[in-house]
Amino acid sequence: MTTSSALPERAGRHCQNALNPFHSAHYFAPELTAELSELGVEGRAGYFAVRSAPLGAVGAGTIAATFYSFKHELIAQHVPQVWTVTTPQAVLDARLRAVDAALRRLLGDAVDSPEMAEAAKLALTAAEGCTRHARPLYSAHADLPVPETPHLAYWHAASLLREHRGDGHLVALLDAELDPTEALVSHAASGHGMSYRGILATRGWTPEELTAAQERLRGRGLLVDADELTEAGTALRKELERTTDRLDRAPYEHLGAAGVARLTELAAGFTARLMESGAFPQTLFARD
């Protein structure tokens, strides 16, 4: 294991940015919709079931706590009712089949390449450095078996690293005293977050609730009337990322600078292929 000083600044974040699309692409894949439909799970219930399945048949409260940015009332429309239709294990099995099919469609023969096997080994090594305490989504995913095939093992490791960083990010949001709507609005205003259209379409908040969040942020001197971050708002978002980086440094320290650089290179290549193959709906992230 190397020390943190051996890693370039933000190396872990850059690696995670390259890795995360490999994890998240399956949420938009028609293969997942089809697999869930076979289980009797339709629409928004699918996302809540898929991402929370490693936690077991939990209720809306647990999902609201661990997902953070979704309105509890939206979740409660689908959970726990979804667990009367299917089981967490059935959802996990369906998810893995969907990931396999989607990656084979999007990446072609790259799923069986030496580079994929190398990326899987590196990402799994990094995940060995993750910690369980105060990280419920990561810890639940870490209890799942590692798939045998390299592309699924790499996807599993990318999921572990994504949820590990995400759990830490929620700690940073709480420390910054940003509630779910304020977190979404400030991220959108930074130009790096989901668009307002995407927020309204997926998170369950109303336009009035987002407007109220904007007013609260303006009252704190973080937002201006044009819905742009002030200097203080920009500084707060940057500090959020620095805190998240610090809380997430362990896996990348464990892998070491050379391993992180190589994993980032490989991950960026696979992500580029996913983007070129149309894996993501760009309208969710375009600035309104």
Tell me briefly what this model is.
By secondary structure, the protein is mostly helical. The protein has 15 helices and no strands.
C-alpha Rg (nearest Å) = 19 Å
Shape: globular
List how many beta strands DSSP finds.
Answer: 0
Biggest sheet, in brief? none
Distance between the termini: 44 Å
- Beta-strand proportion: under 5%
Class of secondary structure makeup: mainly alpha
Order of helices and strands: HHHHHHHHHHHHHHH
Helix content: 55-70%
Mean pLDDT: 95
Total of helices: 15
Uncertain runs are: 1-5
Description:
This protein is an all-alpha fold. Helix content is 65%, strand content 0%. The chain has helices spanning 11-24, 30-38, 44-52, 60-67, 72-76, 88-107, 114-127, 136-142, 150-175, 180-190, 196-202, 207-219, 231-247, 249-255, 257-276. Residues 1-5 have low confidence and may be disordered.
Task: For the structure shown, list the relevant keywords.
mainly alpha; disordered N terminus; 288 residues; globular; 65% helix
SSE layout:
Blueprint (H helix, E strand, L loop, with lengths): L10 H14 L5 H9 L5 H9 L7 H8 L4 H5 L11 H20 L6 H14 L8 H7 L7 H26 L4 H11 L5 H7 L4 H13 L11 H17 L1 H7 L1 H20 L12
